[in-house]
Amino acid sequence: MAGMSVEDTFQDQVWLLHVDGSSTTQDNGASIVITSLQGEDLEFAMKFDFKASNNEAEYEALVIGMRMAHEVGAKHLLAYSDSQLIVKQVEFIYEAKEESMIQYLQQIKELKTSFNHFQIIQIPREENIKVDCLLKLASALEDCRTRHITIQYLPEARTPLAVQPITLGEDWKIPIIRWIEEGHLPDDRWEAARLKTRAARFLVQGAPSTKDPIHTPCCGAYLQKKESMSSKRYIAGVVEPMLAHGLWLIKPYEHDTSGQP
């Protein structure tokens, strides 16, 4: 076993996790790519609305990525990062001295217990291009918050068109609502994992997962880092920015989750 990676040992049982985090004037966020056993990629780009150092951004990406991988059912996880410091600290080769780094390492230590096997490997930045591109995409969409787009509906074509009969399937929102409100998942494991991941972008008024933000995998890591904040401030500081970049409300969300009257 010495010198062998998780991927070598467990071969087709390993999920892959590529993470990248950055805190600059251009890029301030995290990007994550989770590769399933079937080779399908789940891609996430996140924009931070809080100040973080580059190392903290890298740790945020790793913590969030590990939480997401656990949520979609990964048991054997091989993580890749281009940050030498983070990889060496996670592997206990380097000692963490800053309090924030120590707290991140404690979270990662706890997250490791969610997997049967976990390993992290450092790779060159040029080999981490997929997540790097996602991070730049999140930054490029920063100005979307102030954009207003008018959508008009055309009831019929301006010129006659041949009409082909179609069969409508199940409303795409129904499986998401059933998962959030009832915890119902498809029998197929991969379809269930995809549904969980997709549902993380939605909120349903009154559903358990929207009453408690930690049930949403991508928000849970923020709650760990920002646990001193009230729930109301957490919703304002984390969920609202994500609404601007792809979190959709299936029903209006008006709950005050601070627990105060």
Automatic annotation (TrEMBL):
Q: Which molecular function terms from Gene Ontology are attached? A: nucleic acid binding; RNA-DNA hybrid ribonuclease activity
- Family annotation (InterPro entries): RNaseH-like_sf, RNaseH_domain, RNaseH_sf
Which CDD domains does this entry report, sorted A to Z? RNase_HI_like (cd09279)
Q: What are the RNase H type-1 domain coordinates in residue numbering?
A: 19-136
UniProt-listed Pfam families: RVT_3
Q: Which Gene3D superfamilies match?
A: Ribonuclease H-like superfamily/Ribonuclease H
Report the protein name in the record. Answer: Ribonuclease HI
